[in-house]
Amino acid sequence: MATPSNARAVKSLNKSSGRRRFVFKTLSQRVEEIDIDVYRSLDPLKAEPSEGSSFFRDCLVEYRICIAYSLNHFPYY
């Protein structure tokens, strides 16, 4: 059961007055309200994988280097 304080909190969300307080929005209205914060990566994108390799292999090698670094610098118990 809702307590009086919960009821006040919910009522405080209702900023408009009148009968049509809760109206379903169309998809286009909801899409307009989306705020996307776009950022750009500072890492350069490679156009081609390394010689004789693939993007997948390059990522595995980079992952292995990151894991080795973290194991050497962050002791585990």
Automatic annotation (TrEMBL):
GO terms for cellular component: 90S preribosome; small-subunit processome. This is Uncharacterized protein.
